[in-house]
Structure formats: C-alpha cells, structure tokens
Design goal:
Elements lengths: L7 E2 L8 E10 L2 E14 L3 E12 L2 H21 L7 E15 L2 E18 L5 H10 L4 E8 L4 H25 L4 E10 L10 E2 L19 E13 L1
Antiparallel strand pairs: 1-2, 2-3, 3-10, 4-6, 4-7, 5-6, 7-9, 8-10
C-alpha cells in the first residue's frame, strides 16, 4: 500500500491572533499541524507605580543638596501620611551636577549646582493615586513620571490567558482536520513565547510629569488591561 502523503502550506488572513503554519507528513496515515495561538484575558489594574522627585538649584553644591533634602523630607512625610508603606518607597536616583555658562572662545564657567532625588513609589489603592500625586506636588515634588498601572499578582491572569490560547489552538486544529478529512489524534508538543508587543500584563502610563496648581485634582482611571499569552502547539492528525 502506497504511503498517504499530505503536505500543505496554510495561510490565514483572519482577524484572530491565530496562524496555522504547515502540515508535514510523519507517518503513512498521519501528519503534523503547527498552530500559533494567542490567548487573552482582562483585569482591572490594582497597582500603580510612579517616580516622584525633587530638583533644586543653588550657587553651591552644599546648599543645593541641603535644599533638596529638606524638600524630599516633606515629600516622604506626605507619602507616610497618605498611608504608603515604607516597603513601597524606594530611592531610585540621587544626583548632583554642576551648571555651566558657555561662551565663545572661553572655558565653561560653573554658575551653580543642581541636585535631584527620585523615589519609586507603589500605590496599592489605585483610586487614591491621583490625590496622592497632588499631595506630593504640594509638598515640593516637581518631577513626576507615571503612574504606571499594572497587576500586583499577574500569575493567575497569565494562567487564564494560557488556557485560552490552548483552547483557541485546539479549536483551529479541529477545523483544519475536519476540512482535510482527518481528525486530531493528540498534541505532540507545546511551547510558549512572547505575544506580539510583549506578553503578560503591560504597564499603562496614565500621565506624565506634573507640577500643577495645588487646587487641581488629578483623576486616575484604572480601566482594564489585557493580559496575553502566545503558544505554539503541534498536533498529530490522522
């Protein structure tokens, strides 16, 4: 009996994030089908991360550092009053740099010094992060990046996305097997890779640097965040 050979390149032009790659003969009456599938789930972010800093300038290095330390003390005190735990505040950078005046055909002249101190802060109550940002500005913070909204415990969401990816791959394999007059016998292998643009929960930037008037109220909308996982599944068809 002559071996049954199946060799077909399948290309999908569909909106779904699933692509069948190829069917390869392995046995007289069986073939391999590789499918790449992206699974997805959504979560409401429950962790906000910001970088808050103080930048000061003075004629001397010592005065610039002293002014900076005094203002940063007020910023840290504001975080403590807001209920932010010490473990959620981490020093990111401390810097002291000379400031120069430049002229033609003359060496640069130091005109003063700039000191900066930045801390990374995690807010576990996203709904309060806007009010805390406003408090930091009132207490002297003049350099803010964030907040970046993400998940405190992403593992459960990632597992849900993985399960969705496998289900999508299986459904597509069943479709191709039926169209080819075959059936899905088993899964030969599964591998996981990064989703397009990066898998897992991606932090969402809500606002940039802010030094607004004290009376302004910053509103933070958490919204929903996609969590994705990509798998490549090899199916055996008969």
């Amino acid at each position: 009996m002559m071996p049954k050979l199946i060799s077909a390149a399948l290309t999908i032009a569909a909106a779904t994030p699933i692509a069948a790659q190829e069917v390869t003969p392995i046995l007289p009456d069986a073939a391999l089908l590789d499918i790449v599938a992206e699974g997805r789930t959504t979560r409401v972010p429950d962790l906000a991360v910001i970088n808050a800093g103080v930048v000061t300038q003075s004629e001397t290095a010592a005065q610039a550092l002293s002014d900076n330390a005094a203002r940063m003390d007020r910023v840290l005190a504001a975080l403590k009053r807001a209920g932010v735990a010490e473990r959620d505040v981490r020093t990111a950078t401390i810097a002291l740099n000379p400031q120069y005046r430049y002229g033609e055909n003359v060496p640069p002249v130091i005109t003063g010094y700039q000191a900066s101190n930045r801390v990374s802060v995690r807010f576990r109550d996203v709904t309060r992060s806007g009010a805390i940002l406003d408090a930091l500005v009132r207490e002297g913070a003049n350099q803010i990046d964030g907040p970046n909204l993400t998940l405190a415990q992403p593992d459960a969401a990632m597992d849900e996305a993985r399960a969705d990816a496998i289900a999508r791959a299986r459904a597509r394999a069943e479709l191709y097997a039926k169209a080819a007059g075959m059936r899905v016998e088993r899964i030969a292998s599964i591998s996981e890779g990064a989703a397009p643009g990066g898998g897992g929960p991606r932090p969402v930037m809500i606002m940039g640097a802010r030094a607004a008037a004290p009376e302004a109220d910053t509103q933070i909308a958490a919204g929903e965040q996609d969590v994705t996982a990509t798998v490549t599944v090899r199916f055996v068809l008969r």
